[in-house]
Here is the input.
Amino acid sequence: MRTEPFGISAAAPDDIVRMAELEKICFSEPWSEQSLCSCCQNPEYIFFTAKYGDGRIAGYCSMRYVLDEAEICNIAVAPESRRKGAASALLSEMIKTARELGLKSIFLEVRTSNEAAIALYKKFGFTVSGLRRGFYEKPREDALIMIRSLEIEEEI
Ligand SMILES: CC(C)(COP(=O)(O)OP(=O)(O)OC[C@H]1O[C@@H](n2cnc3c(N)ncnc32)[C@H](O)[C@@H]1OP(=O)(O)O)[C@@H](O)C(=O)NCCC(=O)NCCS
Here is the structure.
């Protein structure tokens, strides 16, 4: 993997237009600019961006937490910026932040056909814990539920 020195930071209001653009590029049911905007104002959500040195956003992610559990809602990297470590840097930051918040586990749903994302999550210690049948639309597809404990000591 060729890694770039992406800067990871909390998303700012000015980043929302680009995040919505990434949603449209990466997902068949994208979050709109309005829903990103309202989630960014909700204290249960945390958004991070991965930026090149010149400020261009290569990718973004969002995480929601309730009680002692975090959910990764989305992680999206622009096609031309993939396989350079942006998602890894974003995921590391989410895991670190969830640990700092004292959360016990982190989970997500992923399309069963999404080999790239499944490989990414496995690399970061997530394991499959269940299946939600017909969870996704466009196209209709099952979701794998993947989970990672935050109580284990290993470095990421
Ligand atoms: C999945 C996604 C976020 C990965 O982003 P990325 O920045 O390219 O990922 P990284 O460069 O950090 O890759 C880390 C690891 O993930 C795995 N991986 C990433 N892309 C992969 C691919 N196309 N095929 C197989 N494994 C892949 C590899 O294990 C990789 O490590 P390696 O390069 O050392 O082999 C990106 O492909 C994407 O945005 N896809 C569309 C949106 C999406 O599906 N999001 C997930 C929703 S659950």
Q: What stands out?
A: Helices lie at 16-26, 33-40, 86-100, 115-123.
